[in-house]
Amino acid sequence: MSDGFRLGIFLTIVRPEEKALLAAAQERGLEVVRYDDRDTTFALEPPSDLPDVLVNRSVSHTRSVYATRYFAHYGVPTVNEPEVLELAGDKIRTSMRLYARGVPTPRTVVALSPEAAPRAVEAVGYPAVLKPAVGSWGRLMAKVDSAESAEQVIEHKSALGAPIHSVFYAQEYVTKPGRDLRAFVVGDEVVAAMYRRSEGWRTNAARGGSVEAAPLTPELTELSLRAAAAVGGGVLAVDLMESSGGLVVHEVNPTPEFKALAGATGADIAGRIVDYAERIGRQ
Amino acid sequence: MTTQCPECEAAVESRTMVLGEVFPCPDCGTELEVTGKEPFRIEPAPKEAEDWGE
Question: Contacts of residue A22 in chain B, CB cutoff 8 Å?
């Protein structure tokens, strides 16, 4: 029932996920306030027509962080919180936090210069995966099998010029049965999980891997909730791999896509996110 | 309501699309974005930037 509750949504483009969120808010009789991340401006003084809660769906990490910082500054709760976006949007900080909280994660070594990078890869061992500190969808990721291939990737990355490309995040390549797992956490619940399979070594659904529903085993549920809590909680997709020693968490995504997961499991993920945001906004 | 793809000039129908929705042109596959509903307008979708992701 509509009582004037206003749900803000900050977005770049409308993908199936954002369309489902808009529809879920409409079904619940909420007033939706849309903010386009390409043309919103932020003054220090709060505007008069603020929403009761803001759901961040910008695909830009930079815009997400600043926008949620501003809405928090205006006193509007955000999903997710800016601190969560900052932390989970940075693989290095996420790895440190997972380790500090005792969440199993693959062996990871970081180097801050191209000169030190080969030593980081050697320390992890071959094969290793080199990932960008910020960014996803499998961009700029490379699996390296030898010192020679590592050297080539390091040279190419550092030639990109931006200082962030001279930060090298090397991670143990977890031998897995051609798949990984994604668990979707909303608040204190895992709402659905799926296997992602791929012919290649990257399993990102955005790269065209196939998906199927995965059972919410006690191990998967417990570990996913711990990983989500480690970065501050909220709406998070936890990516896990099956290692010989059990599940390990390799990423926690703070602005997750869920079209493939909703399709594979039938879970009403958009509805769950809107209900969660409404709860946060009414607290 | 229909309009033309800015790349290949194929006819594109608005159907149930919402403002801001991205979709591939049914003819040439270019990623397009709905930039107006009434009148129906489409433009090439923004290019993926380096910090885009989940």
Answer: 18
